[in-house]
Amino acid sequence: xxxxxxxxxxxxxxxxxxxxxxxxxxxxxxxxxxxxxxxxxxxxxxxxxxxxxxxxxxxxxxxxxxxxxxxxxxxxxxxxxxxxxxxxxxxxxxxxxxxxxxxxxxxxxxxxxxxxxxxxxxxxxxxxxxxxxxxxxxxxxxxxxxxxxxxxxxxxxxxxxxxxxxxxxxxxxxxxxxxxxxxxxxxxxxxxxxxxxxxxxxxxxxxxxxxxxxxxxxxxxxxxxxxxxxxxxxxxxxxxxxxxxxxxxxxxxxxxxxxxxxxxxxxxxxxxxxxxxxxxxxxxxxxxxxxxxxxxxxxxxxxxxxxxxxxxxxxxxxxxxxxxxxxxxxxxxxxxxxxxxxxxxxxxxxxxxxxxxxxxxxxxxxxxxxxxxxxxxxxxxxxxxxxxxxxxxxxxxxxxxxxxxxxxxxxxxxxxxxxxxxxxxxxxxxxxxxxxxxxxxxxxxxxxxxxxxxxxx
Length: 457
Prior knowledge:
alpha+beta; 12 helices; cytochrome c-type biogenesis; globular; four-stranded antiparallel sheet; 8 strands; Tick-borne Encephalitis virus Glycoprotein, domain 1
């Protein structure tokens, strides 16, 4: 894997030189139609590389584990730096990692590896050399991740997020863009009534806005918008964002966020493919173990699964669900938390068992649940806040943990490997998981900047 680490190091150096010479990546420049042209060119490049793989050693080598593992190691290191530093919209270098050239180049390299690997597996399938029960989850997982990465990245410049402050009885069609500019919209919104329910301590339990929407096309709609329940019209989603906190329940204004994301269906397609892959992996491993395991092994599997499920249940039950903030009052809350904690428990059990025997199948199932929990969180975030992934500190460490376990899984597929190193990789991944679970509550980078740091007392 020396070549992989050398290439990754070369990309880091190249990224630093680009950062010094041309400045950070300007993602706003990749708006339509430029992002469509770039995506088409990227596909052409990948196709050309794939067809030349037998003539160019580097292209064939990029479909191997020896290429993927070092690339993911660099991704984890850079993303850890991102998770430890306070990210700023106007920051530079490591304080705005999404525009930091080394970070961008490493993830671009991973996407190229993904694309070539997908093409290589497709060729095997078409030649009849594949195995259906392995190829289906493989293609769903890799293709789904590739689709989500490319469309989310190139589509970010086309996403519009604006805020509208509406008063009672006063139609409003002007919005405030993220840069502070005022813009007129093709729709007008009038606040009819603002409603707030509070807990005994006065904290908000629920707040919503009865609004009337008028469009240039002649639509006249009255509806209610509240946290976790946005309203969609003419390609825009309207979210309940805020209100006059000094007036509280007597607020005469409401703050709405309007979001337009034309690339969202493609991103969601990638998410759903990864969810399907996680389900396939779980079923495939379970069916295989049920056929080969002894009675005693099955009893232990059931015992561990029950313990993990009970821990996840009691952890969720420890939340004071009667006093949840509005953002947590979502149908996604229970499955997101339960599945994630269930995965955490299984991964903890895997670390303990790994002292005596291989735990690859347990890690596969745990990783599948980890993927499901992460994607449930992304789908929930879109309904609650208007974005499925914002690199919030919690999301950043979730990505770090997810990639770390991917490194372990890929390493275990190598024909030659060191069991001691694999064990320490598992320990390291579980340590990163602890940072994702509760460690971020103590990180300066997460304080006042993470929507995942709540008080539910």
